[in-house]
Design a protein that fits this description.
The chain has a six-stranded mixed sheet with strand order 6-8-10-12-15-16, with no helix packed on it. A five-stranded mixed sheet has the order 7-9-11-13-14, with no helix packed on it. The longest helix has 14 residues, at 34-47. The model is unreliable at 113-119, 125-138 and 144-148 (pLDDT under 50). Helix content is 12%, strand content 27%. It is globular. It has 258 residues and is α/β, with parallel strands linked by helices. The chain has helices at residues 34-47, 73-82, 95-102; strands at residues 18-19, 25-28, 56-60, 86-91, 117-118, 153-155, 164-167, 172-174, 183-186, 190-196, 199-202, 212-217, 221-224, 227-230, 243-248, 251-256. It folds into two domains: 25-104, ACT domain (Alpha-Beta Plaits); 153-256, 3 Solenoid (Pectate Lyase C-like), CATH 2.160.20. The N and C termini lie far apart (79 Å). It contains three helices and 16 strands. Belongs to the MinC family. Residues 154-245 form the Septum formation inhibitor MinC C-terminal domain. Cell division inhibitor that blocks the formation of polar Z ring septums. Rapidly oscillates between the poles of the cell to destabilize FtsZ filaments that have formed before they mature into polar Z rings. Prevents FtsZ polymerization.
């Protein structure tokens, strides 16, 4: 014997939409030619295996010196996916450039702050949205009172290969080793009181004043405010020593500590 559900029985929600913040890489296009961009990314792949593999990235359009119809956004999307990078949208650029990118499946994204919140669904009778919305500028963050700072995130154990830790809006302190294949991310500074063997990404939200400190510096990759250096590009950095990494202009500098 089977029982049909009562028409009055409330149905459970099959899903909910929520707005949230994510730490995404922005690839600023300095050259609009796909044949120049993709091979350069492939070269970075060879020097830092796994760094961008399957990573969602945002394409920055502010630096493109070309007309919208001169940019092969469709080819860019296809070739990025072919090398296992996942482009999800664009930031910056002119309205015409954003519309051209959206035609290739790259919608304009809006920088947002604040905590996760519910995103209401439109009623069934609502008219569909227009094809393009210019992203509204995000409000500037409110200054904190003098002498008050958000507490740093402290991880008092080693970070294993495959782990990713992100300190949102604050510094990250690791009391232990960041192993190869691990990734530590902070919107502020990163302190590693142990061996830094994996990837360290500091200065989210374009914080060029952020720094990376490590008692034993031997990373796969180090990045500050979007500028990065892989292991082979560390130059004369004192590998295996206590180091502070910081930005000077657009160049990474590695100063010994102590």
């Amino acid at each position: 014997m089977s029982f049909a559900p009562s028409p009055s029985t409330p149905r459970l929600e099959p899903f909910r939409l929520r707005g949230a913040n994510f730490n995404l890489l922005v690839m600023r296009l300095l050259d609009h030619r796909v044949e120049a961009v993709v091979p350069a990314l492939g070269d970075q792949f060879r020097r830092a295996p796994g760094f961008l593999r399957f990573a969602p990235i945002v394409v920055g359009l502010d630096d493109i010196q070309a007309r919208p119809h001169d940019v092969d956004f469709q080819g860019l999307v296809q070739q990025l996916r072919a090398i296992e990078i996942v482009p999800i949208g664009t930031v910056g650029g002119t309205p015409e450039m954003r519309v051209a990118a959206q035609g290739a499946g790259l919608p304009p994204l809006r920088m947002a702050g604040g905590r996760e919140e519910e995103v209401p669904l439109p009623p069934p009778s609502a008219a569909p949205p227009p094809v393009y919305h210019a992203p509204a500028p995000a409000p500037p963050p409110e200054p904190q009172p003098q002498g008050i700072a958000q507490a740093a995130m402290v991880i008092d154990q080693p970070v294993r290969a495959g782990q990713r830790i992100w300190a949102q809006g604050t510094d990250l302190i690791i009391v232990g080793t960041v192993n190869r294949g691990a990734e530590v991310i902070a919107d502020g500074n990163i302190h590693v009181y142990g061996r830094l063997l994996g990837r360290a990404i500091a200065g989210g939200q374009d914080n060029a004043e952020a720094r990376v400190f490590a008692m034993n510096f031997d990373p796969e990759l180090v990045s500050i405010a979007g500028y990065y250096a892989v292991r082979e590009g560390l130059g004369e950095a004192p590998i295996g020593k206590a180091v502070m990494a910081r930005l000077v202009g657009e160049h990474m500098r590695f100063d010994p500590l102590g």
